Every structure is written in C-alpha cells, then in structure tokens.
Amino acid sequence: ALDIGHDLGRAILNARTFEREHHLVRELRALDDYKGRMISTVAHELKNPLASVRGHLDLLELADELSEESRGWLAALDRGAQRMGRVIDDLLLLARVGEAGHPLVARPVDLRQVVADAVDVVALTASRKGVLLHVDLPAHPVTALGDADEIDRVCVNLLSNAVKYTREGGSVTVDLALAGDQAVLTCSDQGIGISAGDQERIGTEFFRSTNPEAVAESGTGLGLAIVRRVIDRHHGHLEIESELGRGSTFRVRLPAA
Ligand code: ADP
Hints:
- The structure is a single chain.
- The protein contains seven helices and seven strands.
- With 257 residues, the protein is α+β, with helices and mostly antiparallel strands.
- Strand 6 (237-243) and strand 7 form a beta hairpin.
- Helix 1 (2-62) packs antiparallel against helix 2 and helix 4 (148-164) runs antiparallel to helix 7.
- The longest helix is centred in the N-terminal third of the chain and has 61 residues, at 2-62.
- It is globular, with a radius of gyration of 23 Å.
- The chain binds adenosine-5'-diphosphate.
- Adenosine-5'-diphosphate (ADP) is lined by residues 157, 161-162, 165, 189, 191-194, 202, 207-209, 214, 219-225, 248.
C-alpha cells in the first residue's frame, strides 16, 4: 500500500511539473511571437520615412549650386541612409523567416546560380580589400528545394562575412557539391576566426563577438541569425568549424531536390 501511495505521489508530481513546463513553453512562444511582431511593425514604420529621406537626398544631389564640400556631406548622408535601409531589410526578413513568419514556399532552386549571384554581390568589396575569391562550381546542376530569395540571402550573408572578417591579402573559398541527398555549400575563409565560446552563441539574434578585430567591423548580429532561421525552416543543417586567428568554415547542408 505504501508503494502504491508513493508511486501515485510521484505520478502527480510529474504531471504537475509537466503542466508547469508546458505552460512555460506556451508563454515563451507567445513572447517570441510578440517580439517578432514588434520588430516587424517598427521596421515597417521606419521604412517609409527612410524612403522619403532617400528621395530628397536624390533631389538635393541634382542641384547645380552645391559646393564640393556639400556634395561630400550628401554622399555621407546617402551612405548612412543606405546602411539604415539594409538594417531595416534585415529586420523585416528576420521577422518573415521567424516562427510566426510566413510559411515557406519551396521550389527547385539551382544553387550554382544562387552562388554565382552572391559572388557578384561581394566581388567588388573583396577586390577593394585585396581578398581573393576562389569559387568552385560543379558542371552539373545542384538543386535544392526551397525559397530562392532566402537561400540567396544565406549565401550573400556567409560570403560577405567571410570577406568582412578576412584580413587584406587573405582568401575566401566557396564550394558547392552534391553529397547523397544533400546539397552542400561550403564557405571557408582565412580570417580572424571565432572562439569556441562565441561559436556556441553565433546565430543568436544581435549576437556579435567581443573579439576586438570583429568589433572593429560594423555590423548588427542579424546576418547569421537570418542564416540559421532560413536553414532551419528548409530542414537543413549549419556546421561551423573555426579557430581564432586561422579562419572559419561554414558548411550548409540543404535537402537536394
Ligand atoms: P555582423 O553584422 O556582426 O557581421 P553576423 O550575424 O553576420 O553579424 O555575425 C555575428 C558575429 O559572428 C560577427 O559579429 C562576428 O563576430 C562573427 N562572425 C561571423 N562570420 C564570421 C567569419 N567568417 N569569421 C569570423 N567571425 C565571424
């Protein structure tokens, strides 16, 4: 009788713990949902005034009577507005690919094209910085099932980070291959690397490394959060290998179509 009473007591305790945990999970989901909606609303509200600022900057640039100095100030304003626009776009995308965001519409995507487009985006920055880009694309199509724009952002974010966090004269290698039922995209750099502690937190929204060399570069900590979420919703995997001072390899595995 004692045993039965004891077992019953434990069962009740377990049920209560389960209920409490269930409640906590629901609350956390609701909070995450709220955060996603807040980010998206704020970003939307910032988009219109910024478009107006950029429109007026364009008009000012057309004026004839501007001095060289004023043109310099306008160019600086324009760069600031462009950067603001990129942060807003990142916030909107983050909300879109988040849990409460839009469902994924998956279509076959030839990753060779996506990688080639992403290389075009970073090529100018890389050459200005003296970073060599090696691109190895197979002769046959490597097709993943997913959203082309989202996968494109994964490639652009990984590649631009690789270029950004590599010192002048270093190199970045992009490689694409089919491995069984997976499309594998590998982006390696000989850059500043990421400590083991930071590797665990990387991809968390707004996380930036405290490594002084990384801090010296401007950024928001949104790029890899987007990468992670997009890969998750495509049922893929992200692997990171990195050593401080030696470089990093980011490997993306996506289900092949
Ligand atoms: P950020 O806008 O700061 O670049 P990300 O989300 O793209 O944001 O990256 C988060 C952090 O991860 C960066 O601040 C940087 O410290 C680190 N990181 C990302 N990619 C690399 C890389 N290829 N090499 C070294 N550090 C990197």
